Amino acid sequence: MLDWGGGMTKAVSYSQWFLEPYCIGMKLRTLRTQKRLTLARLAAETGLSAALLSKLETDRMIPTLSTLAMISRVYGVGLGYFFSEPSRHSISITRRAHLESESRGIDGPRLTPLAAPSENGGMTAQAIDFPPGGMMNASDYLGNSSGMIYVIEGQLQLDAGGMRELLEPGDCACLHSEMMVMFTAQGKQRCRALAVVQRPCTVQK
């Protein structure tokens, strides 16, 4: 069922389902934002109505190829920008309730993975909960990799090679060192931090 305003109605459920992974509406809205164009200005440039463009950006209509071609001309991109196949896609979600339940009644630092493990390397993130006075050797988490640690709440003391720094909420430490680095929670409150490491690929060829 064609919409002569320049798109297909959402009643075409199979088309909507098939095109959903390409996030065409989101890509259109992102391009317009990057170009700092209003819907009215884009409408003037393309000859399409602002109402139609708004429906396309919010996925209330599916654009025809001719409509998408007119918009692509203004943005200076090809149609391939909207239909390129992603080479990888992985999202891991850890709920706040899970983090809070995991951190109760612990004697030492508790590491909670925030992403599923992968043999292809990439970024690995973990939430670290330190009880008051809790200590952790950075190499226990980083190994031979480099990474960063960001303090979310509490105070975290960093000791490395005679250097001592107190990290407050919002402070971040990036580590690229073969020396022993120790982290210790300070004060009477727990400390929570986010640690991110770039892991090498472990797949054997």
In terms of per-residue confidence, which ranges show pLDDT below 50 for 5 or more consecutive residues?
A: 1-5
Question: What's the β-strand tally?
Answer: 12
Helices, by number, come to: 8
Distance between the termini: 50 Å
Structural class: alpha+beta
Give the CATH superfamily of the largest domain.
Jelly Rolls
Helix content bin: 25-40%
Summed up, the domain count is: 2
Instruction: List the secondary-structure elements in sequence, H or E.
Output: EEHHHHEHHHEEEHEEEEEE
Report the sheet with the most strands, covering strand number, pairing sense and barrel closure.
5 strands, antiparallel
- Give the integer mean of the pLDDT values: 79
Q: Features of this protein?
A:
205 residues; alpha+beta; 434 Repressor (Amino-terminal Domain); Jelly Rolls; 2 domains; 5-stranded antiparallel beta sheet; 4-stranded antiparallel beta sheet; 8 helices; elongated; disordered N terminus
Short description:
By secondary structure, the protein is α+β, with helices and mostly antiparallel strands.
Describe the protein's architecture and organization.
- The protein has helices at 13-19, 24-35, 39-46, 50-57, 65-75, 80-83, 96-102, 138-142; strands at residues 2-3, 7-9, 61-63, 110-113, 122-130, 135-137, 147-153, 155-160, 163-167, 172-175, 181-186, 191-199.
- By secondary structure, the chain is α+β, with helices and mostly antiparallel strands.
- The chain folds into 2 domains: 2-83, lambda repressor-like DNA-binding domains (434 Repressor (Amino-terminal Domain), Orthogonal Bundle); 96-199, Jelly Rolls, CATH 2.60.120.
- The strands form 3 sheets. A 5-stranded antiparallel beta sheet has the order 4-5-12-7-10, with no helix packed on it. A 4-stranded antiparallel beta sheet has the order 6-11-8-9. It has a 3-stranded antiparallel beta sheet with strand order 1-2-3.
- α3 (39-46) crosses α4 (50-57).
